[in-house]
Amino acid sequence: QVQLVESGGDVVQAGGSLRLSCVASGGTSSRSVRAWFRQAPGKEREFLAALNLADYDTRIEDSVKDRFGLSRDSARITMYLRMNDLQPEDTALYYCAARDGWATAQTMRNPARWPDWGQGTQVTVAS
Q1: What's the pLDDT tens digit per position in 31-66?
Q2: What is the predicted pLDDT for the residue at 28?
Q3: What are phi and psi of 89, to 5 degrees?
């Protein structure tokens, strides 16, 4: 099990940018695949992007890949989600998740396939 803590959420104007951070601790040698999800009120949790810390392979959903990007620090402890040109529909609670092993896109989109979660960080985009 790995503990995950997200930060960086804020209130921004439409068109603005944010960088979210996900810091991992405890058992970081496992759970080498990390991901970002988001959940807006009344909606299901939505997969956004995943990063394999072992080989830096990434997967970003088509719906956000032109605006969102992933990166990590050299120690492979912190993962970042860079979000540009934010829009009101991006308003949500953003979560970091971790699992063992890379998987198919279908598997990764399923929140139930991610055993470890952070508490989330709120992003609010004002129009």
Answers
A1: 889 999 999 999 999 999 999 988 889 999 999 999
A2: 61
A3: -70, -10
What DSSP state is assigned to residue 65?
A: T
Going from the C-alpha of 120 to that of each of 5, 27, 44, 56, the distances in angstroms are 8, 20, 15, 23
Instruction: Give the pLDDT score at 25.
Output: 87
CA torsion angle for 15, 90, 97, 54 (degrees, to 10)?
Answer: -40
Element (H, E) at 107: helix 105-108
Tell me if 86 sits within 8 A of 123, measured CB to CB: yes
Largest CA distance in the chain: 41
Bridge partners, residue 49, by sequence: 36, 60
Among residues 74, 62, 120, the alpha carbon closest in space to that of 94 is found at: 120
- What type of residue is 7? S
